[in-house]
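Late entry, evening session. Most of the bench is empty. Finally got around to the prediction I had been postponing all week. Sequence below, unchanged from the version circulated by S.P.
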Amino acid sequence: MMKVKRFSQRCSAVCLTILAVLSLTSCGKERRANLLTQDDRVQRTVNLFSPMEKTDPNAENTARSAADLTVAMAEEKLGVTVAYRTYTAEDYQDKSYDDVVLDRARSNMDDLYLLNSDVILKLGAEGKLVDLSGIDNAENLRDIIWTANTVDGKLVAIPQEVVAYGLFVNKDMFDQYGLALPETPEEFLECCRVFRENGIETPIGANRWWLETFVLALAYADLYNGGNTEAEIAALNSGEARYSDYMRPGFAFLKNLMDRGYIDAEKASVSEAIEAEGADFLAQKTPIVMAYWGAANTETAYGKTDFEMQVIGFPSSRGQMPVITMTGLAVGAEAEHREDALQVLNVMLSDEALQVYSEINRVISPSKNVKVDCVPALKPLNDRIEEGVYVLGSNAGMKVEQWGSTCLIVRELLAGAAVEECMAAFDRLQDEALAK
């Protein structure tokens, strides 16, 4: 019988990696980032646990990451010191970031935490996180934040960016064969057929981490865009509706792509994100890959191409569909410095701070008041999101964690499992969640 293994360290850290990509990471053991002099020891301190570490806080004229700059704004405005407590794989060996942060939050070891969606769900359900709906800047948040990070009616985490996934396509190759950019699954299949018939052996470059984006777009296009989101999620959480019924079309579509050879399942099952498929995409050997928003902004991924690149949503019954995931900053309900932590978070989430963060990282802000011009390649994806059209790949309001669970079950499909075996895995996950 196929079993879904515990979310691995690498898979659970995907979203956190997006947030931390411009940050300086520690290569050694956890350290105290703020060394206070005798005169400073009365200063208020807030402890932040995350996978990233800022530069020396006492150094002047040192470039800091976008997140660090917002922390610095809070320190200056409030007169507090934010002490970084940092996760490193070397320190914790076999324990994933999720495992470690769960232990620390349950033991009230820190004040502020950067959390993945599955941990937000667990800690929120346990009452370990403060309801953030009352902080001043919560009123500026996009609706998507409230939907994704509300547990039992409480907004328990807020991100500094909204991470969107889309299809990165070689527009020149589509034009060469007279193909319009696909909107629906049927149009997508037709594009792949034409590419294959014209000598492109594998039209879709894939890896073992992000194929769930196809599944999620097809599964939840109507749930998130049909005007009945709350009721449908409530039915799933009660067991009245089954996750497998939502997921089946997406898995069947993915299986179809594999069976026709449009995706190399064997290669994808062992390939790391971007490292495997990136070279062929940049060399124009494959016209389609999937990646996150930031991959279009950096020269180390797809920021510079020798062709016209566009980033579009995944094919769905409602057209091109962005898939959105997010992490969240949260405050421990019983944190030692709870009130100071709430004030720090409020400054970090102010429109002023988020404008700085978003302009440096060129990302979608959680604030509806903050707009940043995106690169031309991202405009199709951004337009859909601004229209309010998207699917959430992570939603703490669902009792079954979505992003990691779907990723792992897709891997079983890549390894040869039948669609119905994959659906049985979702049924087991739902039954286990409902039994708790």
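Two things to note before I forget:
The radius of gyration is 22 Å.
Confidence is low (pLDDT under 50) at residues 1-14, 17-41, 53-63.
Will write this up properly tomorrow.
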